Amino acid sequence: MAPSTPIRVIDSHTEGEPTRVVLEGAPDLGSGPAADRLATFRSQHDHFRSAVVNEPRGNDALVGALLLEPHDPKNLAQVIFFNNVGVLGMCVHGTIGVARTLAHLGRLPAGTHTLETPAGNVTIAGNEDGSISVANVFSFRHQTNVAVETNSHGTFHGDIAWGGNWFYLVKEPSVELHFDKIHELTELTWHIRQSLIHNGITGANSEEIDHIELFAAPTRRDADSRNFVLCPGRAYDRSPCGTGTSAKMACLVADGKLAVGETWGQESIIGSLFRGTFTPATEGGIDGVYPTVSGHAHITAEATLHLDPADPFQHGFAP
Ligand code: PYC
User: Fold this and answer.
1) Is the CB of 293 under 6 A from ligand 1?
2) Is the CB of residue 63 below 6 angstroms from any atom belonging to ligand 1?
3) CB 167 within 8 A of CB 211
4) Can you give the pLDDT at residue 3?
5) Whole-angstrom Cα distance, residue 266 to residue 16?
6) What is residue 307's three-state secondary structure?
7) What's residue 107's pLDDT?
8) Antiparallel, parallel or unpaired: β 87-88 and 7-14
9) What's the CA gap between 257 and 174, in Å, rounded?
10) Averaged pLDDT for residues 210-231
11) 233 C-alpha vs ligand 1 centroid, how far in Å?
């Protein structure tokens, strides 16, 4: 049987969290805005998503990124992110991975460049220390001190905030934020997420809160906080999660705990670091911030994926 179109990819990791950028072989999604292409990808090409990021070619933590022609030619590119269970409106670690991939290909001229994402346009820039900065979408706190009762772990209190994805930011985690506790942290945050759904607790416009973020004191001297972030498909973020760092900064600013000109150092559960700064803003009557998040990414592989029609697992599998 003839194999399908080869899929050319470049893999990288950003502060430990992997990204797979699809350069060639993606389905034709037209030339519209990112939100329209995302809708087409989600409704018509889910098998492609699964083939690229799920086993046997990928893993639960892997985030895929389709690198597409921009809708507006003044932008550098359009990017559609996806993971082991679906699509993502925005992903900061993935954007840093895309920027590192473009630089590796010699396709990132000096200066700042705009990328179109389904959550809005973001700006990327390379820094002298080798890190990459992402000026993220408008981020804001939606609700504060929301209680959620779990059957298994008691009641938690947290803020609901948007940083390009919806987050529930827990104030008092009952499990120590230590790498040895990954299993317990995953169980805990999964229960919190299910309890949010069960109790009808959502982001704005009834949107599902699909990221849960816990905080504790940092172990690094250059960080202000350490986090654990559960992603939608039950994988934990190896990086400090850039959309989660954006949501956190929006909450800190709303509480008067982070001032203009200050840098927020967010450490991940594996000990890697994002640095965040912000510009205050008001959009649609909502006070929030435009966060900029910086981190390092490294290329790990260049590959061609093959989907063999005779392979019963050609489109991947996930639990
Ligand atoms: O860095 O924004 C992020 C992110 C979202 C999900 C995984 N990483």
Assistant:
1) no
2) yes
3) yes
4) 54
5) 14
6) coil
7) 96
8) unpaired
9) 23
10) 97
11) 12
Q: Beta strands 112-117 and 77-82: pairing type?
A: parallel
pLDDT digits (tens, 9 = 90+) for 118-140: 999 999 999 999 999 999 999 99
- Is 91 designated active site? yes
Query: 242: CA distance to ligand 1 center in Å?
Result: 6
* Of the candidates 27, 15, 37, 19, the residue with the CA atom closest to the CA atom of residue 104: 19
Half-sphere exposure of 253 (CA within 13 A, CB side): 29
C-beta 12 within 6 A of ligand 1: no
Gap between the Cα atoms of 14 and 77, Å rounded = 20
Q: Which residues contact 236 (CB under 8 A, 6 or more apart)?
A: 61, 182, 185, 186, 189, 228, 229, 230, 269
| CA of 1 relative to ligand 1 center, distance in Å | 38
Q: What is the pLDDT of residue 318?
A: 87
Rounded to whole angstroms, the Cα distance separating 166 from 145 reads 15
What is the greatest pairwise CA distance in the chain?
Answer: 63
What size, in residues, is the chain? 319
pLDDT tens sequence across 40-59: 999 999 999 999 999 999 99
Q: Is the CB of 16 under 6 A from ligand 1?
A: no
What local confidence, expressed as pLDDT, does residue 199 receive?
A: 96
Residue 109 Cα to ligand 1 midpoint, Å, equals 25
Q: Which residues contact 149 (CB under 8 A, 6 or more apart)?
A: 155, 195, 199
Pocket test for ligand 1, best of 15, 53, 91 (most atoms within 8 A of CB): 91
Does ligand 1 come within 6 angstroms of the Cβ of 237? yes
The protein residue with its alpha carbon nearest to ligand 1, atom 5, reads 91
Q: In this structure, what are the phi and psi dihedrals at residue 300, rounded to the nearest 5 degrees?
A: -115, -25
Look at residues 266, 312, 261 and name the one whose alpha carbon lies nearest to residue 289.
Answer: 261
Among the options 52, 66, 91, 169, which is catalytic? 91
Tokens describing residue 64: 């895929």
Determine the residue of 14, 63, 85 to mutate for testing ligand 1's pocket, defined as the one with the most ligand atoms within 8 A of the Cβ atom. Answer: 63
